[in-house]
Amino acid sequence: MKKFLIAALVLVMAGAVWAQTPGGISSAMSTRMEADFTKIVTDMGWGTVDTVHPVLAERMWDYYFFYPVLNKDKQVTGYVWWAKNVRIASHYDDILAIINPDGTLQNLWVGANSRHADFYTDFAKKSQGAAIQKFIGMDSKRDWNEATDAVSGSTFSAYKYFGELKAVLACFKIYVIDAGKLIK
């Protein structure tokens, strides 16, 4: 009985330690809501998000809503998409992408800036880390290029972002552009 209690205590303590480590059950999950993502677009000076008229990419529901981004003249300059809690190794990141009407990536924002200095966004200066520029202009047919896309200290994360972006750009092309759902 004594051995059983000691073994149980060891298991409970090991579980408590695991729960507190990055990647354990207590990994920080995003608390951002729709308003927080639309504010990022506005704060960076990329436009205003029209949350009333989203474009739904066929049968994908809320994971693939594309919200029009409007300039000051209320013209559509792109479409914003975001994903909360994308699993990256032992943590979660939020990703926001603005896609041009031609299906290329216009802008990118990554939420876990403290982990990825090369993806950092400075809202005061409206500037972003050098790694973000590697992905601007990409389309759904672009392949990963180890020579240029690897990011020191964040290569695994960059590869995961690349995969998410490639998937969302393909979805945008097929279910928005090719389906004739672009807002004029």
Automatic annotation (TrEMBL):
Signal sequence annotation: 1-19
Listed name of the protein: FMN-binding domain-containing protein
Keywords from the UniProt entry: Signal
